[in-house]
Amino acid sequence: MRLRKCPKCSSYSLKHVCCGSATVSPHPAKYHPARAAYLRLAKKLEHKTD
Ligand SMILES: [Zn+2]
Q: How far is the CA of 10 from the centre of ligand 1 (A)?
């Protein structure tokens, strides 16, 4: 179960709708160092000339 947050009343809720609007995840973009490193490598290989 993931906790969500209401953008209108700023209260945390498990419901997807609060105050008549959709609640959002309070932690939307979690940074993954391993994935970031992989994406960097993928980009590097993409531009590799030899
Ligand atoms: Zn609300």
A: 6
For the chain, the average pLDDT equals 85
SS3 2: coil
Tokens of 33: 């160092």
Phi, psi of 17 (to 5 degrees): -135, 135
For residue 18, report the distance from its CA to the centre of ligand 1, in Å: 4
What's the pLDDT at 31?
A: 67
| C-alpha–C-alpha distance, residues 35 and 14, integer Å | 28
Ligand 1 center to 2 CA (angstroms): 16
pLDDT over 90 (residue 9):
yes
Distance, CA 30 to ligand 1 centroid (Å)?
A: 24
